[in-house]
Amino acid sequence: MNSPDHAAPGLPGLFAERAGDYRAGMHHCTEDELPGVLAGLLAAAAKVVLPPGVPAAWTSGLAVPTLLDDRGLTAADLDEAGLSVLTGCAVAVAETGTIVLDAGPGQGRRLLTLVPDHHVCVVRDEQIVADVPDMITALPDPTRPLTMISGPSATSDIELNRVEGVHGPRRLDIVCVHPAI
């Protein structure tokens, strides 16, 4: 990634605020606290799907009945009740509260993040950029297909009543990993 080693001051807070506006669950921790936070968020899951490249340390505290590697799971497999997915991201955009996945290591393919009922995404402070132009610059390969996610799946009916989870995760939890102080 072409981003700086540390996020500019204020960007992690702005990102958390904006992602929270989209009804994403926001959680904050240090690297050492990360396995425990993930274990808590995924405790109720019957199965957790992991894309290739998820760090082993992330799953060290998980006590779910089944951990699945995403090796050719179908949409029907991923649409099971009680299924969660755990990913990282390529970059996050503070201005829009958006996480961006490019199918790189630990992120998985689009189907993996758009079908399961619950998506947990880990975002590190240094992955957060100010705006969309900075996002393009920060991507390792801006020609790769991107999945941009701002909150759980949502749509509005004709009367503008918001309905969540119609065509994707009903629940999005973002775990922001901050440097230890």
UniProtKB/TrEMBL annotation:
Query: Start and end of every LUD domain?
Result: 86-176
Question: Where do transmembrane segments lie in this chain?
Answer: none
Q: Which Pfam families match?
A: LUD_dom
Matching entries from InterPro entries are given as: FTHF_cligase-like_sf, LUD_dom, NagB/RpiA_transferase-like
The name under which this protein is listed is LUD domain-containing protein
Origin organism is Catellatospora methionotrophica
